[in-house]
Amino acid sequence: MLVAPLAGWSTPLDEAPDAVFASRMMGDGVAIDPLDGVLCAPCDGEVALIAQSRHAVTVRAAGGAAILMHVGIDTVNLKGEGFTVVTREGARVRSGEALLRFDLDLLARRAPSLLTPVIVTTDSGFRLVRRVVGREVRVGDPLMDLEPERAAAGAPAGSAAGQGAVRRARVAFEHGIHARPAALLAASLKNLAADVRLRARGREANARSTVALMALGAQHGDEIEIRASGPDAALAVQALAAVLGAEAAAPPRGTVAVRAGDAASAAAAIPAVTLPALEGGGTSPAPGAKLPGVIASRGLAVGRAFHLRRPEIAVAEAGAGVAHETNAFDRARGVVRARLERRAAESGAGAGARAAGEIAAAHLELLEDPELLGAARVSLAQGRSAGFAWREAVRGAAAQLRTLADPRLRERVDDLLDLETQVLVALTGAGAASVPELPESAIVIARELLPSQLVALDPTRVAGLATAAGGATSHVSIIAAAMEIPALVALGGTALALREGAELVLDAEQGVLEVEPPPARLAEVRSVLAARRARLAAERAAAQRECRTADGTRIEVFANVGSAAEAEAAVRNGAEGCGLLRTEFLFLERDSAPDEAEQRAAYQRIADALGGRPLTIRTLDAGGDKPIAYLPQPPEENPALGLRGVRTSIANPSLLRTQLRAILGVRPLEQTRILLPMITEAAEVQLVRAMLDELRLELAVTQSVEVGVMVETPASALLADRLLAVADFLSIGTNDLTQYTLAMDRGNPQLASRLDALHPAVLRLIDTAAQAAAGQARMVAVCGGLASEPLAAPILIGLGVHELSAVGAVIPRLKACLGRVTLAECRALAREALAQPDAAAVRSLARRAMGEGGEGAR
Ligand code: PEP
Ligand code: MG
């Protein structure tokens, strides 16, 4: 039994605002919010380790368990200030004996959190069987019960000798150590004072440098040697081994999984290819040539070749004095940092700006990379100019990445070169000159395009992008897809030899760049584009009207949104409300959950952007394909069938309570309704409702808020009548409903073409749910991907669906399609669809019914 080493409030470890502790990478335990500045021994034992900066102590219990007590978060940064050690390493201590005193006021002012994780480290061979949380504890009060892990065989795998430690581990990350795992590894060392190096494939890397970690080129299953020295060496090797081996089959937790249908994932889903030779020679491809490429952003364009060459910014090798150059370097980095921070913080108008913001955040991390900085500073100390030092450092790292076989890592070279240019521009003031003046309808040709180059171009003049190199998963491809600019990549060096101004058809639907095609082909493409534009303009103009079928049946067409900017864009596209706010956007890519105030403000911004139209806020849908690193999640063999959706919220009541309180804070409250993901039975709804009622009482909220159930499992479709006894409405999530009905993983690219929500089995489940809703005169919506398919809309309406919540951009199309059919036609079509043998048959039926071979519905 361990006793409380501190007086304070004991909470679950997940409350610790640090992913390394909250995700239990280093071990399981509790976190104590201290009320007093004395840390004591949690059991009889020996003081095994005192961090050099005095903020953490490890005690080894007589039975062998190692208990790490880490006072506050990020307190290593205080470098010992405010801490007084009253014991020594190796001392035998009694339970409750003082080990460390700390200045509570100073920590409260200087550390991000006082929460003190008390954990049984993972290599102890013990596991927790009971813990006391959610109450105040005094020193000596019972805190945790441990028992030996039966499976724990012998001594820990690592060896620690004095201030050094070595350990071997295997890479469990499915795609090896690419950008995100590298960031996770580096982040796990944030609180530890140790110099740590990893060795793999004959290379060595500083474990705090994401660039160096990526350059290892380590793949899934590779053995890695971890070597650490310094006061926290043992903890450091333990943390890294835990991260490296953290996930056997699952994707790295904290990564954003690819969701079919997202702009970014459309690019990511395209397999990487071997690059064709880049040495194109000087001759322009002959008129009529067709250059095959990889589709990075779908679409069709016609325009003239415009070569975008990256300006080579001249830098002198010799500097004007070490101090002068170092100052210039730090100033330039400061300018770039400020610009990137601004861009990263912008929610931006539209998905393009949002993607650019996320990429800016990644660039910020590279800007602070210790290996890059270290290399540049060595060069500066040798008398080189700031520009030369930075360029050499970046190019050295880029050269290493280029040698790797993994195309995902090679694509990160673009990011490095982009950062090189940004810092050089800040140093030399060459900025303004590097933004080119584009002609109308430019098809921008480049060897490879950098994200900052793309966002600097005038989007109204860019018809398409064509690059010789590059990959479909590169950051620039993701931005292009989000900006809806057609793009082909990996066209090979021939593209670079294209005549400036040559007429081109960029067909990013078939994957070819057509060089100076015959006039008839140009005319054909122009007329297809003109027809598309005219149709779009007419539909946009009509989109602000209420949606009605040809016979006047009112259908509500809402939008799925993820930010205030998207909500504004959706309203411009004719959205009559938001049928699904995926609140995950607030919880992903960070170290801890947003608090009530942050959530309330975000929901309020979206409610305001909707201008009084209904806002359906879905509670956090974590787990499955949306893992969140800081949420405690037991290892799961099959996360799609594990703790996800409402199950995660019920398992983390404080998280759910905070979210419900935030939703109750939105004004006017009548505008909002709540949607619960992954429901399988009424009890789950009742539980959330009970909490909601309790909170309404607590907050003196008199209005009631509608609570809806997502129908995403066959169980909820079949039990829809029972669920409606406790819920107000249904919203069908066809993405998951299809995955669970067809037993096909929605993220599996090999099954992507068969994962079709128009499968008659899925339609029959929708039919069951819609009939249940009709029987009780309740509203049933569809908010999954199928609602964004104009071809499917008449079938859904025919089945009895009242509301479609779609991607904003397709709303004009949806409204137009529904305006051409009557309810009776929709019903007849739906009946026929239910009788089809497979999804392909449903699709051809729908195409025939919509006329023009389905073109009208595309
Ligand atoms: C769905 O499953 O259809 C749905 C809308 O939820 P998500 O795609 O966020 O899982
Ligand atoms: Mg879902």
Describe the fold and architecture.
The chain has an 8-stranded antiparallel sheet, with no helix packed on it. The protein is α/β, with parallel strands linked by helices and 858 residues long. Residues 151-162, 247-281 and 852-858 have low confidence and may be disordered. The longest helix has 24 residues, at 322-345. Bound molecules: phosphoenolpyruvate (PEP) and magnesium ion. The site of magnesium ion has 5 residues, from helix 24. Magnesium ion (MG) is lined by residues 677, 712, 733, 735-736.
SSE inventory with pairings:
Layout: E1 2-3, E2 8-12, H1 19-22, E3 27-34, E4 38-40, E5 45-50, E6 56-61, E7 66-70, E8 83-85, E9 92-93, E10 98-102, H2 104-110, E11 116-121, E12 126-131, E13 135-137, E14 142-148, E15 159-161, E16 164-170, H3 179-187, E17 195-200, E18 203-206, H4 210-215, E19 223-229, H5 233-244, H6 263-268, E20 290-292, E21 294-297, E22 299-307, H7 322-345, H8 351-367, H9 370-381, H10 386-402, H11 407-410, H12 412-428, E23 442-446, H13 451-456, E24 462-467, H14 475-483, E25 487-489, E26 503-508, E27 512-515, H15 519-542, E28 556-561, H16 564-572, E29 578-582, H17 584-587, H18 596-609, E30 615-618, H19 646-651, H20 653-664, E31 672-676, H21 682-698, E32 706-711, H22 714-718, H23 720-723, E33 729-732, H24 734-742, H25 760-775, E34 780-782, H26 793-799, E35 803-807, H27 811-818, H28 823-834, H29 839-850
Parallel strand pairs: 22-23, 23-24, 24-25, 28-29, 28-35, 29-30, 30-31, 31-32, 32-33, 33-34, 34-35
Antiparallel strand pairs: 1-14, 2-3, 2-13, 3-11, 4-10, 5-6, 5-9, 6-7, 7-11, 8-10, 12-14, 15-16, 16-19, 17-18, 17-19, 20-27, 21-25, 22-26, 26-27
Helix pairs in contact: 7-8, 7-12, 8-14, 9-10, 10-12, 15-27, 16-18, 18-20, 20-21, 26-28, 28-29
The protein binds phosphoenolpyruvate (PEP) and magnesium ion.
Phosphoenolpyruvate is lined by residues 580, 582, 621, 712, 733-736, 783-784.
